[in-house]
């Protein structure tokens, strides 16, 4: 792609955002492409089922154990394979055709939902069954995540990539609006098993969409032939690109410490505000509403920028800290909408920026690293923050996660500014921008 430097060219740091922004697109422009419409429609259905399963799974574990730490362990097991094997998944994705790979992974994910449904509906489910199912699902996700991320570019091409990435997130968050609400009703009425069953069956939709695609319309990326050292090659590529590595580091901190909502929301619903599964589902729905708004704004905005990424990450951390000490459920609910909006802005901005700045033949490995760092840190962060939540309360656990996210945003922002030859200028005069980045003339001046 022309948006990033070639593998054999000198990397040009983009921390100061010198590249002119892409022209604004219509909010749904990539849906004009038939293959992407099929993909998008299938994902709407399966994502709704996925959110139903997530809510039902978390509540089932909390019911079986009474422990927020156990919910954290379940989340950790689901993301542990990404931490252990994520980079190898990226190597496979660069080597193999994406569509057949997705047919396999989507089928396997549907089967995990059906297996958990059978155990729950027959009354034989135990917490270790949920742990095993979560781990197997995580193994499939190692390949499915980078395959889905990179297949988007094959469906829409480079001009529509940023828009399609944003719409994918809007798709996921739209399902998040519906899935938790439906799951809460099902759990209260008939138990968790039917939520798992619906999730398993929902994967028929994306499988049908993949089968109906026109192969001749795909923008096929060059496949990487099998060879030695491809994993190291991918790591060297990212290590030589500070405009890639620092955004990935930032989303790693946000994903590890800031996105542990299953732990915090279940604890707030159960212990702080004395609610039940209905309140838990509602809080997830409110986060999803904010996330959907953030995704749609990103779809209209176009290409991601590093300044927006850092600012959104800092705002996300501040909102979590404030929400942790909200005195009432109504204030907490409003803050969840804003938290969802800024959290999604971080994710979409980083995702679209990294994809567009990466050469096509390296994209599978780079996006695997991105997903490994973003979701693979959960096995470290979830049990730790689950323990803090159990020992010191939901408010303390939430505040700790927000504080770490805020500090990471500030640190990475300063590093990217330094890489881009910028410095922070503070101006407290009335009517002026109080904090802004300006060129550092001393660093940019040629050596004497």
Distance between the termini: 37 Å
Rg, rounded, reads: 22 Å
Order of helices and strands: HHHHHHHHHHHHHHHHEEH
Total number of helices: 17
The backbone outline, from C-alpha atoms, is globular
> What is the number of strand segments?
2
Low-confidence segments? 1-23, 443-448
Secondary-structure class: mainly alpha
Can you characterise this structure?
The chain has helices at 34-65, 68-95, 98-121, 127-156, 161-190, 193-202, 204-211, 230-239, 242-258, 261-272, 277-301, 306-324, 329-356, 363-376, 378-392, 394-419, 441-444, and strands spanning 422-426, 435-439. It is mainly α. A hairpin with an 8-residue loop joins β1 and β2. Mean pLDDT is 80; it is low at 1-23 and 443-448. A two-stranded antiparallel sheet has the order 1-2. The longest helix has 32 residues, at 34-65. This is MFS transporter. It comes from Streptomyces fungicidicus.
């Amino acid at each position: 792609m022309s948006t990033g430097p070639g593998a054999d060219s000198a990397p040009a740091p983009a921390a100061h955002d010198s590249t002119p922004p892409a022209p604004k697109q219509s909010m749904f422009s990539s849906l004009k492409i038939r293959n992407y419409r099929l993909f998008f429609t299938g994902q709407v259905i399966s994502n709704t089922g996925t959110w139903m399963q997530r809510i039902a799974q978390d509540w089932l574990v909390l019911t079986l154990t009474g422990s927020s730490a156990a919910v954290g362990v379940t989340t950790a097991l689901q993301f542990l394979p990404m931490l252990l094997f994520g980079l190898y998944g990226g190597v496979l994705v660069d080597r193999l055709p994406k569509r057949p790979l997705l047919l396999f992974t989507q089928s396997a994910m549907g089967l995990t939902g059906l297996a958990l449904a059978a155990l729950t509906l027959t009354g034989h489910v135990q917490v270790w069954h949920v742990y095993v199912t979560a781990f197997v699902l995580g193994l499939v996700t190692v390949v499915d995540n980078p395959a889905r991320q990179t297949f988007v570019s094959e469906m829409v091409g480079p001009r529509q990539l940023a828009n399609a990435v944003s719409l994918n997130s809007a798709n996921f968050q739209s399902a998040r609006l519906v899935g938790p609400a439906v799951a809460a009703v099902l759990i209260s009425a008939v138990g968790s098993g039917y939520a798992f069953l619906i999730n398993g069956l929902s994967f028929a939709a994306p499988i049908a969409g993949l089968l109906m695609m026109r192969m001749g319309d795909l923008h096929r990326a060059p496949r990487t032939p099998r060879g030695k050292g491809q994993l190291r090659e991918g790591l060297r590529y990212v290590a030589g690109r500070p405009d890639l590595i620092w955004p990935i580091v930032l989303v790693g901190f946000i994903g590890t410490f800031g996105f542990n909502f299953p732990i915090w929301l279940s604890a707030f619903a159960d212990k702080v505000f004395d609610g039940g599964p209905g309140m838990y589902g509602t809080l997830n729905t409110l986060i999803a509403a904010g996330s959907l708004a953030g995704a749609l704004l990103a779809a209209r905005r176009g290409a991601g920028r590093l300044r927006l990424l850092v600012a959104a990450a800092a705002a996300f951390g501040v909102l979590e800290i404030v929400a942790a000490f909200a005195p009432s459920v109504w204030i907490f609910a409003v803050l969840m909408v804003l938290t969802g909006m800024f959290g999604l802005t971080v994710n979409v901005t980083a995702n679209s920026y990294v994809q567009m700045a990466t050469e096509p033949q390296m994209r599978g490995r780079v996006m695997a690293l991105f997903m490994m760092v973003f979701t693979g840190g959960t096995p470290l962060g979830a049990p730790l923050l689950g323990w803090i939540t159990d020992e010191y309360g939901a408010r303390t656990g939430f505040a700790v996660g927000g504080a770490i996210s805020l500090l990471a945003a500030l640190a990475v922002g300063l590093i990217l500014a330094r890489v881009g030859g910028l410095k922070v200028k503070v101006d407290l005069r009335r009517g002026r921008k109080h904090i802004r980045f300006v060129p550092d003339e001393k660093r940019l001046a040629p050596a004497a």
